[in-house]
Amino acid sequence: MGVITICSDWNDRDYYLGALKGRLLSLCEGVQIVDLGQNIELYNISQAAFIVKNAYHYYPEGSIHIITVNSEEGAEQPHVVVKNNGHYFIGTDNGIFNLMFRDLPDEIIQLKADVTDIHLLNFPELAIFAPAAAHLYNKKPLSKLGKKTKTLYNMVPIRALIQQDTMTGKVIYIDSYSNAVVNISKDRFYSSLEGRDFEILVQSNQHLITKISQRYSDVPEGDILAIFNSAGMLEIAMNKGELSKLLQIDTNSDIRVKFHDR
């Protein structure tokens, strides 16, 4: 039994997800379909990339991951299959794969845009992605799906900025608990720390954090904390509270870290 995951910005009242799952079940005998991430913010490929990047490696090798966020094809943004680390990813080359992978993936195939049903021209997930997934699920050669290429649409991920004794990061994701994930990795934080003390400034100088917690419960309920999550990224949270809603934090909000000698 193989696995196909779906990450989309569709919501529950649409028929799109149900139609795609039905098509996959018809084409892939015995398949297990998993919702990797649904209700992504509309067209937000950065959010989709964050979810897929941090979840796919927990699935069995050979799994197929369909990404339907901002999936319309363009002149420089074709539909592709990407193979990397033993997994297959099907989506649109709109910059999402460049956000997901630090290095160029192992293989990239531009899918043939052969849509025979005119009614499906605006539903590439059903017309193109599902047949491509079925092709791979049934152990057919990746090379038969289209033309091999060695380039991807380049979208440079936003990186934390370091100036003298200050590191400025951006909120890149807000989870269902309203915790804010920042684009500062654990490795980069500690390599910049160099044994110094620090202050994490949330919403300018209104809220200061001076230590990294190991658990959310390390602080009293309602207090703010900083933690490195399972993805190894800095996360600003509130114990038993909804931080981002209460402090009006959005994606792209600044989070500053100030380093100073002891």
Automatic annotation (TrEMBL):
InterPro entries: SAM_HAT_C (IPR046470), SAM_HAT_N (IPR046469), SAM_OH_AdoTrfase (IPR002747), SAM_OH_AdoTrfase_C_sf (IPR023227), SAM_OH_AdoTrfase_N_sf (IPR023228)
Domain S-adenosyl-l-methionine hydroxide adenosyltransferase N-terminal: 4-146
Pfam entry (one): SAM_HAT_N
Coiled coil region boundaries: none
Keywords associated with the record: S-adenosyl-L-methionine
Taxonomic superkingdom: Bacteria
Domain S-adenosyl-l-methionine hydroxide adenosyltransferase C-terminal: 169-255
Family in the record: Belongs to the SAM hydrolase / SAM-dependent halogenase family.
Record protein name field: SAM-dependent chlorinase/fluorinase
